[in-house]
Task: inverse folding
């Protein structure tokens, strides 16, 4: 099945990302500790992350043009996070450093037995966008606007501008925010965590919950990631179920696997692939990401992705 979209031409970027960046402190432990206990860590490291920033890095590695729009703090973590995007050839012309703010951070505890993680995070309120300061001039610079809805009122202004200029709107969402019922009808591609559909529509059955989201909000493509089992996508009343891939040499870390899925899915859309192929690419990128520690470390380049799929 083909995507029900026509990509805009003559845009400066393939994808513009608006939303979160973060610096992750990853802590590996032999097993996740029970409450009120102690455990010796195996290793720890500092790496860049954040949903939207990571997705822009992944799409850039696959050879497309990306820009990141978001805010960093005026601290060492901000310098570090911004430099990682520059190193990955992500355009940061529209990124900001906010004086006196602290960059979003996350402490991520990873169980070495299976790579599953627990995330403890904090975002400084000074990093938030208000409705009045939404960077509207960036909303339609790409063929796709991809965002996280943390600053919902600003996001609503961004997606309205994008839609008015025939830009495809994609959301990365895993929780219910104030104003979400007003925002979601503006979204073309909604890929969520497995838990989100039940949160928003109150239906436990996966297919029925996606069908209700599509009926209620009108998103053209609605889907969810289902971990190692793969993904489920609904378009034009047809469900596309795609199995996950085995992680080469075993899963080291699931941090950012959902972001990696969106990398592959948007790459498939922008490469004029079918939805089925885009979902396969998305599951493949997610599996390859899990080879190493961190959200971005093992995101593949185009040759790695195509070779993995051919095998």
Result:
């Amino acid at each position: 099945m083909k995507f029900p979209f026509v990509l805009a031409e003559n845009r400066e970027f393939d994808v513009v990302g608006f939303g979160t960046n973060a610096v992750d402190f990853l802590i590996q432990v032999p097993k996740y500790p029970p409450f009120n206990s102690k455990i010796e860590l195996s290793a720890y490291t500092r790496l860049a992350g954040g949903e939207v920033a990571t997705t822009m890095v992944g799409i850039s590695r696959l050879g497309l043009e990306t820009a990141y729009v978001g805010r960093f703090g005026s601290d060492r973590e901000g310098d570090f996070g911004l430099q990682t995007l520059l190193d990955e050839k992500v355009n940061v012309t529209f990124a900001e450093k906010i004086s006196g703010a602290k960059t979003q951070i996350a402490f991520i505890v990873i169980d070495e037995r299976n790579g599953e993680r627990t995330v403890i995070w904090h975002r400084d309120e000074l990093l938030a966008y208000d409705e009045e300061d939404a960077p509207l001039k960036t909303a339609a610079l790409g063929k796709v606007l991809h965002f996280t809805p943390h600053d919902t009122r600003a996001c609503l202004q961004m997606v309205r501008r994008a839609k008015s200029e025939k830009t495809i709107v994609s959301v990365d969402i895993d929780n219910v925010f104030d104003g979400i019922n007003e925002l979601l009808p503006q979204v073309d591609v909604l890929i969520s965590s497995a838990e989100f559909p039940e949160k928003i529509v109150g239906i436990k059955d996966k297919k029925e919950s996606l069908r209700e989201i599509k009926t209620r909000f009108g998103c053209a493509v609605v889907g969810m990631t289902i971990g190692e089992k793969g993904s489920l996508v609904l378009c034009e009343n047809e469900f596309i179920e795609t199995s996950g891939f085995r992680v080469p040499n075993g899963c080291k870390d699931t941090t950012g696997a959902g972001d990696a899925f969106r990398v592959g899915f948007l790459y498939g859309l922008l490469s004029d692939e079918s939805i089925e192929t885009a979902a396969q690419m998305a599951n493949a990128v997610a599996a390859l990401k899990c080879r190493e520690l961190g959200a971005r470390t093992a995101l593949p380049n185009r040759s790695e992705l195509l070779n993995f799929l051919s095998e």
About this structure: The CA atoms of residues 72 and 143 lie 25 Å apart. The chain has one domain: 13-20+51-102+126-310.
